[in-house]
Structures are given as C-alpha cells and as structure tokens.
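Example 9 (inverse folding). The structure is encoded as follows.
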C-alpha cells in the first residue's frame, strides 16, 4: 500500500509515526488502512523497540474522523466502518511494543480513541480532548474513555461532546504528562530511548502483562505475570543485567 497519510522515521530503535492529513489530521478510511499497515510492518521489525505516534502541525493530533464519509453509511456499512476502525485501535492497544502518544493538539472523537489505546500519553499544554460523535448522532470510544478516565468525566465527555483541556485530562487520567509544545517530541523520544535501552524480552513481556491487566482479574493477571517471569529468569539478558549492576557498568543486552 502506498503511504499517503502515515509516515515513519526510524532511528535508535525508535519509530516515530506521524499522521499527516492537513488541516486537522482527520482520519478517513484510507488513513486507517495505512495506520494498520504501518503498525503491522513495525511489529515485524526487530530493530524497532518503541513507537512514538503523533500528528503533523501544531493544531491537531487527530481531530476525529472525516465526517464527509458518514452520509454514505447505513446500518450495515456504518457498522462495518466502525468495526474496522475498532480493529485498528485494538491492534495498536495490543501491539507487541510500547507505544507513546505525543498529543500535539486536538484529540477529538476517533483521535481521543486512538490516543487512549497507546500505552503512554504525553500531551502539549494546548491539547484538547472531546468525544464529538454524539453531535453526529453516533458514538465512539466510549469504552476506552470509561476504562481510562474517571467515570463521571467519561460520562460527561460521551453524553455532551464537551471538550476538556490538557490539565483536566491529566487530572482525570486521560493524559499522563503535560509539557510545553516545544518540549513535546524531545520528551517523548527521551522516554522512548529509556525504554528502548531496557532488556528487549523483558519489555515485550511487560507490554503483554500490562495489556492482560486490562482484560482479566487480578488473580489471572498474577498467573500471567508468573508465566512471563518463568521465561525471564532463564534469559541471558537477566544475567547480564545483574552482572552489570554488580560490576557498576552499563549492561549490553542481546535480546536473548
């Protein structure tokens, strides 16, 4: 697939994926397809340890969907559209590597849903968030919002379509960190580098554990973590990490 809207740069084990669909990076069907294709390829690239997802420009991360497509949808085609978009978001939520979302502006509707399936959301001070689907007579990202945010705030967003600012998003659990716009990408890449420097197998299994924690009971999650540890105790990287700690040197991990 020719990439028209989604662009990727890879350096130092970090892939920066940028959504580029001016003026507000609204996602149409083709852009969703490209987004899936991009993450699928990155999942197979062993040189990539962490992904940073952002939007181009200073106005929006993703200001929702391309509403012009909606008039053509009926019960069946609209449901197929919604399922396809949810499948893309679920693929990113369960992606086999950590994903940091650099929210560089508006995260509206599907843009908020996309941000919420990333592992970590670092947002600029100018960022704003809403679920405007209710204004179009439909719904979107209600489950992700209820899962991430305070329940009352989630209800307000879903029912009213009102926006909240970056500091409110931080307070209610939608954002994890707020920084100035000129610091946003530096902060995200810096955190990505820190994660990318950890033992690769441990990071991969840590991601699986965190995803599992959202889906099962605590007891089931603990069993899953024990299974991950059963693998990690036998890795060469575990021995290298402990030896380097005792020798007061920087470890050299091989992903083994």
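The amino acid assigned to each position is listed next.
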């Amino acid at each position: 697939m020719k990439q028209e809207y989604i662009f990727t740069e890879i350096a130092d084990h970090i892939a920066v994926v940028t959504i580029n669909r001016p003026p507000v990076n609204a996602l149409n069907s083709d852009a969703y397809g490209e987004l899936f294709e991009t993450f699928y390829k990155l999942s197979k690239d062993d040189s990539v340890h962490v992904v940073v997802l952002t939007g181009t420009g200073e106005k929006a991360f993703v200001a929702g969907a391309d509403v012009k497509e909606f008039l053509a949808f009926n019960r069946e085609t609209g449901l197929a559209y919604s399922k396809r978009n949810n499948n893309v978001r679920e693929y990113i939520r369960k992606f086999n590597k950590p994903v940091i979302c650099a929210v560089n502006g508006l995260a509206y509707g599907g843009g908020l849903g996309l941000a919420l399936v990333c592992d970590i959301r670092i947002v600029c001070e100018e960022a704003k968030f809403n679920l405007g689907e209710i204004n179009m007579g439909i719904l979107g990202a209600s489950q992700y919002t209820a899962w991430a945010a305070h329940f009352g705030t989630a209800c307000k967003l879903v029912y009213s379509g009102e926006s909240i600012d970056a500091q409110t998003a931080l307070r209610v659990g939608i954002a994890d960190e707020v920084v100035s716009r000129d610091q946003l990408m530096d902060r995200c890449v810096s955190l990505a580098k820190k994660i990318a420097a950890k033992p690769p197998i441990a990071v991969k299994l840590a991601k699986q554990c965190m995803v599992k924690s959202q889906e099962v009971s605590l007891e089931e999650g603990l069993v899953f973590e024990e299974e991950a540890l059963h693998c990690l105790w036998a890795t060469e990287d575990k021995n290298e990490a402990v030896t380097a700690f005792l020798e007061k040197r920087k470890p050299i991990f091989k992903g083994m």
